Amino acid sequence: MPEPRIEDLEGAAALHWQAPETERLGDWLLRAAEGFTGRANSALPVGDPGVPLPEAVATVQDWYRRRALPPMIVVPGVLQEGTPPGPLEDHLAERGWQPRPGPAFVMTAAIADIPARPDNDVHLTPEPDASWFALYRYRGQDLPPIARTLLMSAPWQAFATVRRDGRAVACGRISVAGAAGEQWGAITAVEVDPGWQRQGLGAALTSALAAAVAGRGARRVLLQVETGNAPARALYVRCGFRDSHRYHYLIAPPAS
User: Fold this and answer.
1) Distance between CA 96 and CA 86 in Å, rounded?
2) Which of 4, 197, 210, 212 is least surrounded by CB atoms within 10 angstroms?
3) Is the pLDDT score of 2 beyond 70?
4) DSSP codes, 46-103
5) Rounded CA gap, 215 and 194, in Å?
6) CA dihedral 144, 145, 149, 151 (to 10 degrees)
7) pTM of the model
Protein backbone atom coordinates (compact mmCIF):
# COMPACT_ATOMS: atom_id res chain seq x y z
CA MET A 1 0.00 0.00 0.00
CA PRO A 2 1.72 3.24 -1.13
CA GLU A 3 2.25 5.94 1.45
CA PRO A 4 -0.02 8.97 0.95
CA ARG A 5 1.44 12.35 0.16
CA ILE A 6 1.84 14.68 3.12
CA GLU A 7 -0.65 17.11 1.57
CA ASP A 8 -3.28 14.40 1.13
CA LEU A 9 -2.78 13.11 4.66
CA GLU A 10 -3.09 16.59 6.17
CA GLY A 11 -6.26 17.15 4.17
CA ALA A 12 -7.68 13.86 5.43
CA ALA A 13 -6.73 14.63 9.03
CA ALA A 14 -8.59 17.96 8.84
CA LEU A 15 -11.86 16.10 8.27
CA HIS A 16 -11.60 14.35 11.64
CA TRP A 17 -11.38 17.54 13.74
CA GLN A 18 -13.51 20.16 12.03
CA ALA A 19 -13.70 23.65 13.44
CA PRO A 20 -17.18 25.20 13.61
CA GLU A 21 -15.97 28.21 11.64
CA THR A 22 -14.03 27.70 8.42
CA GLU A 23 -13.27 29.64 5.27
CA ARG A 24 -11.36 28.85 2.10
CA LEU A 25 -8.55 31.00 0.78
CA GLY A 26 -8.04 29.27 -2.54
CA ASP A 27 -6.96 25.77 -1.51
CA TRP A 28 -5.94 26.90 1.98
CA LEU A 29 -8.30 26.22 4.88
CA LEU A 30 -8.79 28.77 7.67
CA ARG A 31 -10.25 27.35 10.90
CA ALA A 32 -11.45 28.87 14.17
CA ALA A 33 -12.85 27.25 17.32
CA GLU A 34 -12.53 29.81 20.12
CA GLY A 35 -8.84 28.97 20.54
CA PHE A 36 -9.30 25.33 21.62
CA THR A 37 -6.54 23.16 20.02
CA GLY A 38 -4.02 24.21 17.43
CA ARG A 39 -5.53 22.10 14.66
CA ALA A 40 -8.92 23.83 14.94
CA ASN A 41 -7.46 27.36 15.17
CA SER A 42 -4.84 27.46 12.44
CA ALA A 43 -4.63 27.87 8.71
CA LEU A 44 -3.83 24.72 6.74
CA PRO A 45 -1.69 25.93 3.81
CA VAL A 46 -2.12 22.95 1.48
CA GLY A 47 -2.28 23.82 -2.20
CA ASP A 48 -2.53 27.22 -3.88
CA PRO A 49 -4.07 30.13 -1.92
CA GLY A 50 -5.04 31.76 -5.21
CA VAL A 51 -3.21 35.00 -4.40
CA PRO A 52 0.48 35.91 -3.98
CA LEU A 53 2.03 34.57 -0.79
CA PRO A 54 2.38 37.96 0.98
CA GLU A 55 -1.29 38.69 0.33
CA ALA A 56 -2.31 35.22 1.54
CA VAL A 57 -0.42 35.64 4.81
CA ALA A 58 -1.87 39.11 5.34
CA THR A 59 -5.36 37.68 4.79
CA VAL A 60 -4.69 34.94 7.35
CA GLN A 61 -3.50 37.51 9.90
CA ASP A 62 -6.55 39.70 9.40
CA TRP A 63 -8.97 36.74 9.52
CA TYR A 64 -7.72 35.53 12.89
CA ARG A 65 -7.31 38.96 14.46
CA ARG A 66 -10.90 39.80 13.61
CA ARG A 67 -11.81 36.78 15.77
CA ALA A 68 -9.48 37.83 18.61
CA LEU A 69 -7.26 34.81 17.93
CA PRO A 70 -3.50 34.79 17.34
CA PRO A 71 -2.80 34.22 13.63
CA MET A 72 -1.37 30.70 13.34
CA ILE A 73 -0.36 28.52 10.41
CA VAL A 74 0.41 24.81 10.60
CA VAL A 75 3.52 23.85 8.64
CA PRO A 76 3.74 20.16 7.66
CA GLY A 77 7.22 18.97 6.76
CA VAL A 78 9.34 15.92 6.06
CA LEU A 79 10.82 13.84 8.85
CA GLN A 80 14.47 14.71 8.36
CA GLU A 81 15.71 17.46 10.63
CA GLY A 82 17.74 20.11 8.89
CA THR A 83 15.63 20.03 5.72
CA PRO A 84 15.68 23.54 4.19
CA PRO A 85 12.46 25.47 4.85
CA GLY A 86 10.08 26.13 1.98
CA PRO A 87 8.97 29.52 0.64
CA LEU A 88 6.11 29.83 3.14
CA GLU A 89 8.30 29.14 6.15
CA ASP A 90 10.97 31.54 4.87
CA HIS A 91 8.35 34.22 4.36
CA LEU A 92 6.92 33.79 7.86
CA ALA A 93 10.37 33.76 9.49
CA GLU A 94 11.26 37.02 7.75
CA ARG A 95 8.17 38.56 9.32
CA GLY A 96 8.88 37.38 12.83
CA TRP A 97 6.50 34.44 13.11
CA GLN A 98 7.60 32.13 15.94
CA PRO A 99 7.17 28.38 16.51
CA ARG A 100 4.53 27.32 18.99
CA PRO A 101 5.77 24.71 21.51
CA GLY A 102 4.87 21.09 20.88
CA PRO A 103 5.78 20.00 17.33
CA ALA A 104 4.31 16.62 16.50
CA PHE A 105 4.62 13.56 14.33
CA VAL A 106 1.82 12.16 12.20
CA MET A 107 1.93 8.38 12.39
CA THR A 108 -0.01 5.91 10.25
CA ALA A 109 -0.72 2.18 10.25
CA ALA A 110 -2.63 -0.33 8.21
CA ILE A 111 -5.49 -1.52 10.38
CA ALA A 112 -4.65 -5.10 9.43
CA ASP A 113 -1.17 -4.64 10.93
CA ILE A 114 -2.35 -3.49 14.36
CA PRO A 115 -2.15 -6.49 16.72
CA ALA A 116 -5.39 -7.70 18.26
CA ARG A 117 -5.22 -7.63 22.05
CA PRO A 118 -7.51 -8.46 24.96
CA ASP A 119 -10.07 -5.67 25.07
CA ASN A 120 -9.68 -5.10 28.84
CA ASP A 121 -13.37 -4.21 28.92
CA VAL A 122 -13.12 -1.42 26.35
CA HIS A 123 -16.58 0.16 26.09
CA LEU A 124 -17.57 2.14 22.98
CA THR A 125 -20.30 4.78 22.88
CA PRO A 126 -21.42 7.09 20.04
CA GLU A 127 -20.91 10.18 22.22
CA PRO A 128 -18.56 10.95 25.10
CA ASP A 129 -20.30 10.20 28.38
CA ALA A 130 -19.70 11.63 31.84
CA SER A 131 -17.01 9.08 32.69
CA TRP A 132 -15.13 9.89 29.47
CA PHE A 133 -15.20 13.61 30.24
CA ALA A 134 -14.18 12.92 33.84
CA LEU A 135 -10.84 11.53 32.60
CA TYR A 136 -9.86 13.37 29.43
CA ARG A 137 -7.82 16.54 29.69
CA TYR A 138 -6.30 18.52 26.83
CA ARG A 139 -2.69 19.29 27.76
CA GLY A 140 -3.67 18.83 31.39
CA GLN A 141 -6.47 21.40 31.21
CA ASP A 142 -10.21 21.11 31.72
CA LEU A 143 -12.20 21.13 28.50
CA PRO A 144 -14.09 24.26 27.43
CA PRO A 145 -17.70 23.88 26.21
CA ILE A 146 -16.63 23.99 22.55
CA ALA A 147 -14.65 20.78 23.02
CA ARG A 148 -17.80 18.68 22.55
CA THR A 149 -18.43 20.38 19.20
CA LEU A 150 -14.97 19.39 17.98
CA LEU A 151 -15.16 15.88 19.42
CA MET A 152 -18.41 15.31 17.48
CA SER A 153 -17.25 17.01 14.27
CA ALA A 154 -16.24 14.02 12.10
CA PRO A 155 -18.69 12.25 9.79
CA TRP A 156 -18.54 9.33 12.27
CA GLN A 157 -16.88 8.90 15.63
CA ALA A 158 -17.01 6.71 18.72
CA PHE A 159 -15.62 7.07 22.23
CA ALA A 160 -13.89 4.36 24.23
CA THR A 161 -13.41 3.97 27.94
CA VAL A 162 -11.82 1.34 30.14
CA ARG A 163 -13.33 1.34 33.61
CA ARG A 164 -11.99 0.07 36.88
CA ASP A 165 -13.98 0.28 40.12
CA GLY A 166 -16.71 2.17 38.34
CA ARG A 167 -14.59 4.97 36.88
CA ALA A 168 -12.78 5.49 33.60
CA VAL A 169 -9.03 4.86 33.77
CA ALA A 170 -8.38 5.02 30.00
CA CYS A 171 -10.21 6.76 27.18
CA GLY A 172 -9.88 7.64 23.51
CA ARG A 173 -11.73 8.70 20.39
CA ILE A 174 -11.86 7.04 16.97
CA SER A 175 -13.30 8.69 13.88
CA VAL A 176 -13.76 7.91 10.19
CA ALA A 177 -13.56 10.46 7.38
CA GLY A 178 -12.32 10.82 3.85
CA ALA A 179 -13.36 10.61 0.24
CA ALA A 180 -15.05 7.52 -1.13
CA GLY A 181 -12.49 4.74 -1.42
CA GLU A 182 -10.02 6.66 0.76
CA GLN A 183 -11.59 6.46 4.19
CA TRP A 184 -9.21 6.96 7.08
CA GLY A 185 -9.58 6.18 10.73
CA ALA A 186 -8.07 8.65 13.19
CA ILE A 187 -7.24 8.11 16.85
CA THR A 188 -7.42 11.22 19.01
CA ALA A 189 -8.03 12.27 22.63
CA VAL A 190 -6.23 9.33 24.24
CA GLU A 191 -5.69 9.48 27.99
CA VAL A 192 -4.62 6.88 30.56
CA ASP A 193 -4.88 7.59 34.28
CA PRO A 194 -1.30 7.88 35.66
CA GLY A 195 -2.08 5.23 38.24
CA TRP A 196 -2.99 2.74 35.52
CA GLN A 197 -0.18 3.35 33.05
CA ARG A 198 2.21 0.58 31.94
CA GLN A 199 -0.48 -2.04 32.37
CA GLY A 200 -1.29 -2.59 28.70
CA LEU A 201 -4.34 -0.33 28.62
CA GLY A 202 -2.89 1.99 25.95
CA ALA A 203 -2.21 -0.92 23.60
CA ALA A 204 -5.61 -2.49 24.29
CA LEU A 205 -7.33 0.84 23.67
CA THR A 206 -5.42 1.41 20.41
CA SER A 207 -6.32 -2.07 19.17
CA ALA A 208 -10.00 -1.66 20.07
CA LEU A 209 -10.24 1.78 18.47
CA ALA A 210 -8.68 0.54 15.22
CA ALA A 211 -10.94 -2.53 15.17
CA ALA A 212 -13.99 -0.27 15.53
CA VAL A 213 -13.44 1.23 12.07
CA ALA A 214 -12.39 -1.92 10.24
CA GLY A 215 -15.97 -2.44 9.03
CA ARG A 216 -16.51 1.17 7.98
CA GLY A 217 -14.40 1.23 4.86
CA ALA A 218 -11.17 2.42 6.47
CA ARG A 219 -8.05 0.37 5.84
CA ARG A 220 -5.61 2.76 7.50
CA VAL A 221 -5.55 4.83 10.63
CA LEU A 222 -3.60 7.95 11.59
CA LEU A 223 -2.77 9.77 14.78
CA GLN A 224 -0.68 12.70 15.99
CA VAL A 225 1.78 12.56 18.86
CA GLU A 226 4.12 15.27 20.11
CA THR A 227 7.76 14.70 19.18
CA GLY A 228 8.81 14.80 22.83
CA ASN A 229 6.33 12.15 23.97
CA ALA A 230 8.71 9.18 23.69
CA PRO A 231 6.57 6.70 25.70
CA ALA A 232 3.51 7.27 23.49
CA ARG A 233 5.57 7.02 20.31
CA ALA A 234 7.11 3.76 21.50
CA LEU A 235 3.65 2.38 22.27
CA TYR A 236 2.35 3.24 18.82
CA VAL A 237 5.41 1.74 17.13
CA ARG A 238 4.71 -1.51 19.00
CA CYS A 239 1.13 -1.30 17.73
CA GLY A 240 2.28 -1.12 14.10
CA PHE A 241 2.44 2.63 13.48
CA ARG A 242 5.20 4.35 11.56
CA ASP A 243 6.13 8.03 11.22
CA SER A 244 4.74 9.75 8.15
CA HIS A 245 5.84 13.35 8.69
CA ARG A 246 6.14 16.03 11.32
CA TYR A 247 4.40 19.38 11.67
CA HIS A 248 4.64 22.49 13.80
CA TYR A 249 2.72 25.73 14.19
CA LEU A 250 4.00 29.24 13.53
CA ILE A 251 2.36 32.19 15.30
CA ALA A 252 2.42 35.79 14.08
CA PRO A 253 4.05 38.47 16.23
CA PRO A 254 1.66 40.80 18.06
CA ALA A 255 0.10 43.49 15.93
CA SER A 256 2.02 46.74 16.19
Assistant:
1) 16
2) 197
3) no
4) -S--SS-HHHHHHHHHHHHHTTT---EEEEEE-SSTTPPP-HHHHHHHHTT-EEPS--
5) 32
6) 50
7) 0.93
